[in-house]
Amino acid sequence: MSIVRINALEIPPQAGDEIVKRFTARMNSLGDVAGFEGFELLKPTGDAETRWFVYTRWADEASYAAWRDGDGARNAHAGPPAGADASGSEAEGAAAGSEESAPPQRPVSMGATLLEFDVQVEAAGSGIPAAE
Ligand code: HEM
Fold first, then answer.
1. Averages of pLDDT over each 10 residues, the chain, 132 residues
2. CA of 3: how far to CAs of 11, 30, 55, 81, 125, in Å?
3. Over the stretch 72-87, which tens digit does the pLDDT of each residue have?
């Protein structure tokens, strides 16, 4: 069965909008990844909560490991993609109009913990059998 790898990120409350923007800008890097089955960026609902979950689901450990150790994770975590709006990155000295020399974004996350799971039982949407 599939596996789930959740990266639990500590995100300061004022950085929520920025982290959503950064992940949104990276979603295209997941388009063609072998064994990749799903992604969700989960924002905590409690006002005092700062732990966001980056939920990822993979066909098997080998698929996840290939993404993690290859270009996939590098692309997902590289600086701003060419042409991206880098506002909010607090990057100083960005040469306007020069994508090549865009400085690295400062991380907004304050910490990360990887949680690892194997899927045991699953159902999705209309996949739940109706009671007889
Ligand atoms: C289980 C898989 C993953 C692991 C272990 C992981 C690891 C990490 C770590 C350690 C950070 C915090 C360090 C930092 O802020 O630079 C981070 C942040 C981030 N990750 Fe991942 N990641 C995973 C999946 C993904 C995926 C699938 C994407 C998007 C396609 C992604 C995009 C990002 C972005 C945009 C940040 C925000 C960086 C920031 O704070 O500005 N990550 N990830």
1. 97 96 96 96 95 98 98 88 48 41 77 98 84 70
2. 25, 17, 11, 28, 19
3. 999 999 876 555 554 4
* Fold classification of 3-81+105-121 (topology level): Alpha-Beta Plaits (3.30.70)
Calculate how far, in angstroms, residue 77's C-alpha sits from the geometric centre of ligand 1: 6
CB-ligand 1 contact for 22 (6 Å cutoff): yes
Question: What pTM was estimated for this model as a whole?
Answer: 0.82
**Distance, CA of 122 to CA of 128 (rounded, Å):** 9
How many Å lie between the centroid of ligand 1 and the Cα of residue 126? 31
Domain residue ranges in the chain:
3-81+105-121
